[in-house]
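Archive entry: two folds, one per protein. Generate the first.
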Amino acid sequence: MQKQSRRNLLKNAATAAVAVTGVAMASSAAEAQVTGALEKKSYPATPNADNKKGEPPLFSSVVSYGNLVFLAGVGAHFQGTIEEHTKHVLDELEQNLIRAGSSMDKVLKVNVYLNDIKDWERMNTVYKGRWGAVPPVRTTVAPAGGIPGNSLVEIELIAYK
């Protein structure tokens, strides 16, 4: 009985995902393999990404699974203001979304990491209005140890195609 309940729970979650994202979910793992509907796919990094020739990447910058698109955190690794860093990060995220067949207005979830929480209002002046009519849900934190690479802001997101 417990196994059946778990299966129903998973089916209900898949149905909800379809309703929210429009992803056509396969009814079984075998069907997914045949159709390729739920294939994990990686996209090439943006030209600005730090990529050493011949070495395997540490992580993928952009991965899709079905109609979902996951973007790794993007920072701005140059001297500048929080506004300049935020614009750079949002522009690079948008390029990655387009490369994966998505767009800023299809973003569902955003995580923003600020080097200093005092930059929250100034970051928002650039962030606001970049997401279409319905902005994504968002979490904003300032990690105690800061952001790697001396970026003032790092943003990661989840979108759909």
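Generate the second and append.
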Amino acid sequence: MGFDAHVLKVMISTPGDTTDEVEAVSKALHGWNGSRAEGAQTVLLPRFWKADAVPTLNASGGQSVINSQLVDDADIVVALFDSRLGQATDNAVSGTAEEIERAAEGGKPVHVYFSDEPIDRKNADYAELGRLQKFREELQGKGLLGVYADLNDLAYKVRDAIESDVNGLGLGAPSVVRKGEHALPRLSVVRETNAKGTTDDYVVIENKSTAITAEELRIDLQEWQNSVFRQNDDPFSLPPLHKIRWPAAFSMGDATQINATLTWTEPSGPQSVELPVTYS
């Protein structure tokens, strides 16, 4: 059964060294569509110059083509940087930099993320890294920048940013809240095998409610005192059907089951729950 929806064009702006990041963000946008499009009456349409720009000759150059076809037509811009700033244009230090500036001047929501992953020192281009760092410092005076630890972290943060945009634009249909319904944050701990054959631990929290956002959410995992759980101490919001995870490290002496205390606020008032968390 079909449904009427707003279509938001989300341009992914980035230099040429972020193929994996572009794929992760595209999947995140499609994932948002799968869980939120019908309820929010909004569909996200990823746009990337390699796939969506039409080859056209222009006396002003290729960047002008991208500007007119994608930047000016976008509703939201997500900019990604790994280890390169990109090739300079006639008007800016790089094509991505020009797209960011043009979109911001046009009043569009612009979200900029920088990689926080370790640098490959053997193959690093330090001159390019220097250009990128200088540009990053310049941008810091213009707004809040995002960082990502890995592709999953990037995907979660982009989904949260888009959710904020949809709410800010007032496009989403109001959710139907049933009497007595609450946010349902749930926490789990998972272990995954990485590409190197070793294992990584993650703390995962998901709001299973379809209508209520968990505001000012805090997690208390103090029973695992010998563990490392790298979550920002600041409270955060978790919209309906959203999931976030953080890297963690647990010692061999940790118990296989603990209790996690979650506290948050919602329209009905402050909430708190203590949940058993199985570690496997």
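Annotation attached to the second fold: The helical segments are 19-40, 49-52, 62-71, 95-105, 126-140, 151-169. Residues 44 and 79 are 16 Å apart (CA to CA).
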